[in-house]
Amino acid sequence: MRKLMQNLPHSCHPHVMMHYVHTQYNLPSIFYLDTWPFGDPICAIVDPEVAYQVTVQDSLPKPKAIPENIWPLTGEKNQVAMDGAEHKRWRAIFDPGFSRAHLMTLVDGILGDSILFVEILGRHAEEQEILSLEESATRATLDIIGRVVL
Predict the structure, then answer these.
(1) Are 18 and 31 contacting, i.e. CB atoms less than 8 angstroms apart?
(2) Backbone phi, then psi, for 28, in 5-degree steps?
(3) 3-state secondary structure (DSSP) of residue 84
(4) Longest dimension (CA), the chain
């Protein structure tokens, strides 16, 4: 694993690593990766149709690591950690807000907020002023979320 990881950017997402393992070892589109003694075995799925089947169509139970890791951030009731009928109920409620048609109506506003953020960064760079990137990015993110949600 170490050899493989050295060929990837240190900050790459684990999904990238799974696809890389798949291609380097010519594995099938579903394979197990044993991470013992560091973690539980991983069932990697690199085929979009199979991933859709197990996450949306049949909505198989999620690994216990998902709720264990996300609950400190979200609390116990959240769509990421939900399974079964409860997950399907909440997904049906939220799905219209994530439809392609609806999201396309938001692009101009998101782009406008993003351009404003870039302009703010540019002004600070031109004036060589120190800027709290975390605070500015958080404000821009909240502006975009507010626009999308409201």
Answers:
(1) no
(2) -65, 170
(3) helix
(4) 55
Positive/negative CA dihedral, 96, 100, 103, 105: negative
pLDDT of residue 30: 95
* Residue 26 in this model has a pLDDT that exceeds 90: yes
- Closest C-alpha among 22, 10, 86 to residue 48: 22
User: What whole-number distance in Å separates Cα of residue 62 and Cα of residue 78?
Assistant: 13
Contact by Cβ (8 Å): 59, 84: yes
pLDDT digits (tens, 9 = 90+) for 68-117: 888 888 888 888 888 888 888 988 998 888 889 999 999 999 999 999 99
Long-range contacts from 101-110, C-beta under 8 angstroms, 24+ separation: 106/147, 106/148, 109/144, 109/147, 109/148, 110/144, 110/147, 110/148
pTM of the model: 0.56
Expressed in angstroms, the distance from the first to the final Cα of the chain is 45
